[in-house]
Specification:
The protein has 80 residues and is mainly alpha-helical. The protein is built from three helices and no strands. Helix 1 packs across helix 2.
């Protein structure tokens, strides 16, 4: 009783097309497609935001400063 076959779906689609008209129905489907596209884009942005940040290297200048500090600390140690 609750099983609608292909002929029933075609009749239902024809009635909906008659009620809404061709232009309104196509604009409605366009809005649905636009909503789906927006939803997928939002999900992709959310996935991208959840990814961990890539580790970055210190700039060359900072590495030089670190090496100088390390060298100064070694020179300040008492000879033993």
């Amino acid at each position: 009783m609750g099983n609608i076959g292909l002929p029933g779906l075609l009749i239902l689609a024809f009635i909906i097309l008659l009620l809404f008209g061709r232009g309104r129905f196509s604009s409605l489907m366009g809005d649905v497609a636009q909503g789906l596209k927006s939803f997928k884009k939002g999900m992709a942005e959310e996935e991208e935001a959840k990814r961990p940040a890539e580790p970055r290297q210190l700039p060359r200048e900072d590495q030089t400063i670190e090496a100088e500090v390390k060298r100064d600390r070694e020179q300040d140690k008492p000879a033993g």
